[in-house]
Design goal:
Distance between the termini: 29 Å
Strand content: 25-35%
Helix content: 25-40%
CATH superfamily: Gcn5-related N-acetyltransferase (GNAT)
Order of helices and strands: EHHEEEHEHEE
């Protein structure tokens, strides 16, 4: 399958919002106390705003079907991966790994990539450490990671 990772436009916000909601709500299967996600994860207006600000990205197949998305924030030589999400029907197919590699490749001049994920989420913590991200700190809710280039 030929996949493309690219900036998403405002017309993509509705589909990406639906995928975001499904993906984050599925975390109840890996330890979340209840369905939910980061701020705006189920808000169409939030995703439209992120698209307008050029922070919203999509992973799509050769037919234009959106499989997942990401929200990225660049500040100087640091890129914060605000979130990534994959449609649950496409979990465990390597798309998350592909998306993370595409994010890193899209920003060749970024020196540090940062992100955070809930402490309780064993799936995402293992995923990020498996991709070479190192824990830099944690609090009661979140584990903070970074990866230097």
């Amino acid at each position: 399958m030929n996949l493309q990772f690219m900036k998403a436009g405002t017309p993509d916000a509705l589909v990406l919002n639906s995928i975001s909601k499904q993906a984050f709500d599925s975390d109840v299967e890996v330890g979340a106390a209840s369905p939910g996600g980061p701020p705006g994860y189920q808000s169409v207006s939030f995703h439209v705003k992120m698209a307008r600000m050029n922070h919203l990205f999509k992973l799509a197949d050769e037919n234009g079907v959106i499989l997942g998305g990401a929200i990225l924030f660049r500040q100087g030589d640091t890129l914060n991966i605000g979130r990534i999400f994959i449609d649950p029907q496409h979990f465990r197919k390597g798309y998350g790994i592909l998306m993370m590699r595409e994010i890193e490749a899209l920003y060749p001049d970024v020196r540090v990539f940062t992100l955070d994920t809930p402490v309780w989420n064993k799936r995402t913590n293992a995923f990020y450490t498996g991709l070479g991200y190192s824990e830099v700190k944690r609090d009661a809710d979140l584990v903070y990671y970074s990866k230097n280039r």
